[in-house]
Amino acid sequence: MKRFTLEEIAKIAGVSRATVSRVVNGYPHIRPEIRERVQTVITQTGFRPNALARSLVSNRSNIIGLIIPSVVQKVFTDPYFAYLIHGIAQACNANGLILSLYLFHSLEEEHNVIQTLVGTGLVDGMIVTADRHHQDMVETLLANQIPLVLIGEPEDRSKISYVDTDNIAGGYMATKHLIDVGYRRIGIIAAQVNKSSDLRLEGYRRALNDYGIKVDKRLIAYGNFSQDSGYEAVREILPYRPEAIFATNDAMAIGCMRAFKEVNISVPDDIGIIGYDDFPPAQQAAPALTTIRQPVQQSGIEAVELLLELLNNDVKVPIHRLLDNTLIVRASTRNGVRVESNE
Amino acid sequence: MKRFTLEEIAKIAGVSRATVSRVVNGYPHIRPEIRERVQTVITQTGFRPNALARSLVSNRSNIIGLIIPSVVQKVFTDPYFAYLIHGIAQACNANGLILSLYLFHSLEEEHNVIQTLVGTGLVDGMIVTADRHHQDMVETLLANQIPLVLIGEPEDRSKISYVDTDNIAGGYMATKHLIDVGYRRIGIIAAQVNKSSDLRLEGYRRALNDYGIKVDKRLIAYGNFSQDSGYEAVREILPYRPEAIFATNDAMAIGCMRAFKEVNISVPDDIGIIGYDDFPPAQQAAPALTTIRQPVQQSGIEAVELLLELLNNDVKVPIHRLLDNTLIVRASTRNGVRVESNE
DNA sequence: TTGAAAGCGCTAACAG
DNA sequence: CTGTTAGCGCTTTCAA
User: Fold this and answer.
1) Is position A137 within any domain?
2) A160 and A98, same structural domain?
3) Of A278, A305, B273, B325, which residue has the fewest beta carbons closer than 10 angstroms?
């Protein structure tokens, strides 16, 4: 299939290049018969305007970049990124955007690629998955005036737009649920040096405060979001006889359940447990895990749409978008204020 | 940081636009002092040539597309894709290519996106992960003369370039290992309607033939690459007393081991088992799984490099690149021709 | 409502 | 060795 240019289409249709351009772009004031004539030639030839030429004059490439400054292995195995990319790709397709993906295997590579990219005008904007170790890259992007949306709350919220799920509210919701169904001594397994987990922990604190329950430090332990770390961490808490545990992600919650099983503590009768994420393993756990569902895919969509707004109405102030989570009650927390077990 | 153009740099440096272009592109015959003067201005201004303008005139965007016509959820949870994308991204970074990612959530979306993309000259070429259900998309790409490299062997090998790991050799190698260490009645758990598995099965057949072992149909069963399916499938074979099982992926092999455990068959003494892939779960299995390691990341790299060759020396004949696998001996197959167990 | 012409920022002959 | 010039394919005034 030969590639045609505007010029050629114009000649075939016996009109000017400008006219063809107008029908291609849906400009309204064109004599119907002309429009039709041109249209016919376009379909017959299979003409598609050259994206590069278009971009050059319009100064918009319709390409956005997604930067994932993490270990590749981790990224593509973590359901979080699956949902996120799912949402981003979906929104790109819906808005006629091309998604370009930036993955790095070393900081040096990251630096080089970003440096050679920036300033070339290739991408209209960037989405960066938050990671506190890559502040300088974000600075570079910002310095080069590349519209930017972060996924996840950054350290410094003042100058960057981001979308995130509402982790404080989520942590609050999880803790409140435990309180609602009657648990009082509530432990938490948080994650070290992780902003999201920090915020969920903050929600936990606020909920306890609001319900007049004192925060007991001995009921707070830390893991690293892995199942094993949950298993380890909860054993530090167990001696202090918690009635329920809030793990700041599902994997750690499942690790907790493994620990309970080993010492014959039954869920949810002896102890309640709630996770966070609601990725597939939560449902498959036995008993099925009560958890907080994050709208991860939706945050991908929102990120693209926010970026689009940034591009279109050059807003200067950073915009922050927080998405609501949902409490998913399953079998790992007890039902109402029931006290006795079924067995 | 203001964006400069060649023209502006030229004016500042007191030379012509062409000269600046030449130093930017490393053209050799330039008076050193001029080169240096221009270079200085470039670094001072932070000038980067506009990628779009460059692409327009050179007719090369240096953007390649990666099309993954599968369910997004599956893709980003499967370690196979993690390694593959790892390799592709790495090769792109190394070769100054931009990677654009095409994910679809419906056939309609796939069709629309491909249609609007094709013919715009935005991408120089495409890498498509093989999937036998998307032949028409491949046809469209081909019809539009978009240089194409498939990952995995397609149904019709005649007209498309592809890279794959050598599945026949891998299947042969796995089977031969089982024979080498003394197993004779060797069963296989293959996967339905999967080209890779078919080829591995073919390797199994050839190995048995070469060693004078008759293929026994009762020792062949099929799963779908999931752990559960391996668990189910192997139970069909067990009544026929296999001495060893070759599962055409690790997940099914692990499913088999679960089945063995339930009926108290011990690995590797009562039965040997070998998997295929060597993704992390293989190592973590107990006993650790003997398996065939596929160079998946390397196939990503090779795919990019092959595409690059296609782009540069417009070769017309399809090129096929088969990568070698490695036998990884662990604890799930016995050692040498040892017969008695350790226990 | 349409065409002519300028120009987006760059590269690549072609002169000199 | 360097500058001039002519585009790459498109959009967009500006006239007509």
Assistant:
1) yes
2) yes
3) A305
Instruction: Mark whether A275 and A188 lie in a shared domain.
Output: yes
CA of B16 to C1' of D4 (A): 9
Give yes or no for A60 touching B (CB within 8 A).
no
Diameter of chain A by CA atoms? 87
- Asked if A224 and A192 touch (Cβ cutoff 8 Å), the reply is yes
CB A184: neighbour CB atoms within 10 A?
A: 12
Tokens at residue A320, please? 């922050």
Q: Which of B5, B6, B101, B227 to mutate to test the interface with A (most CBs of A within 10 A)?
A: B101
Residues A84 and A151 in one domain: yes
- Domain boundary among the residues A22, A40, A58 is at A58
pTM: 0.92
Contact at CB, A52 and B50, closer than 8 angstroms:
no
Residue B275 within any structural domain of the chain: yes
Q: Taking CB atoms and an 8 Å limit, are B101 and A96 in contact across chains? A: no
Find the domain containing B315 and state its range. 63-165+297-323
| A73/B86 CB distance under 8 A | yes
If asked whether residues A82 and A159 sit together in one domain, one would say yes
Among protein residues, the one whose C-alpha sits closest to the C1' atom of C11 is B57
Q: Is the separation of the CB atoms in B178 and B335 below 8 Å?
A: no
Please report whether residue B1 resides in a domain.
no
Whether residue B48 has pLDDT greater than 50: yes
Show the tokens assigned to A169. Answer: 């509210």
Q: Is A192 exposed, middle or buried (0-12, 13-18, 19+ CB in 10 A)?
A: exposed
Q: Å between B54 CA and D8 C1'?
A: 9
Facing residue for A82 by CB, picked from B48, B73, B85 = B73
DSSP strand E in chain B: where? 63-68, 98-103, 125-129, 148-151, 161-165, 186-191, 220-223, 244-247, 272-274, 291-293, 320-323, 326-328
What pLDDT, in 10s, does the model give residues A216-232?
A: 999 999 999 999 999 99
Chain A residue nearest residue B70, CA to CA = A86
Burial zone of A202 (CB within 10 Å; 0-12 exposed, 13-18 middle, 19+ buried): middle
Residue A72, chain B, CB below 8 Å: the answer is yes
Tell how far CA A51 is from the center of its chain.
29
Asked if strand C contacts B50 at the CB level, meaning under 7 A, the answer is yes
Q: Is residue A1 part of a domain?
A: no
Q: How many domains, chain A? A: 3
Mean pLDDT, rounded, of chain B: 92
**Bases of chain C within 7 A of a CB of the protein:** 1-5, 7-13
Does residue B278 carry a pLDDT above 90?
yes
Can you tell me which residue has its alpha carbon closest to the C1' of nucleotide D8?
A: B57
Set of chain A residues whose Cβ sits within 8 Å of the Cβ of B277: none
Give residues with Cβ within 8 angstroms of B280, minimum separation 6: B79
Is pLDDT of A75 > 70?
no
The separation between the first and the last C-alpha atoms of chain B, rounded to the nearest angstrom, is 72
Q: How far is the CA of B311 from the C1' of C14 (A)?
A: 28
pLDDT band at A343 (very low <50, low <70, confident <90, very high): very low
Distance from residue B308 (CA) to nucleotide C15 (C1'), in Å? 35
